[in-house]
Design goal:
A hairpin with a 2-residue loop joins β2 and β3. The protein is globular and about 35 Å long. It contains 3 helices and 4 strands, in the order βααββαβ. The relative contact order is 0.30. With 96 residues, the protein is an alpha+beta fold.
Length: 96
């Protein structure tokens, strides 16, 4: 599994909601292929998104073919700066 943490300084919940609706299936109501977990919430200065994919290749496919083109089109509130990104190989995955 492969994890991604995106920190978006200055991003609002409304912008996050719009970005998810533009980049995820069913207007944000479903996960893209290979995405197992998508969690997000406010940070001290913006918004943080954590996603877990079954493989790095599925993350890269989503990023390159869906997410980046959607962000290039922009949001109604204007452009969003690229996030600070941290990626990692998931070593432990616990579920309830």
């Amino acid at each position: 599994m492969y994890g991604i943490v995106h920190h978006f300084p200055g991003l609002t919940k409304e912008q996050y909601d719009e970005a998810v609706a533009a980049s995820h299936p069913e207007g944000g109501a479903a996960l893209p292929p290979g995405q197992l977990v998508h969690s997000a919430g406010p940070s001290a200065d913006g918004w943080v998104v954590v996603a877990i994919y079954d493989t790095r290749e599925n993350w890269e496919s989503f990023r390159d073919s869906v997410l980046m083109p959607a962000m290039a089109r922009g949001l109604s509130s204007g452009p969003v700066a690229p996030p600070e990104e941290t990626t990692f190989e998931v070593d432990v995955h616990l579920t309830a």
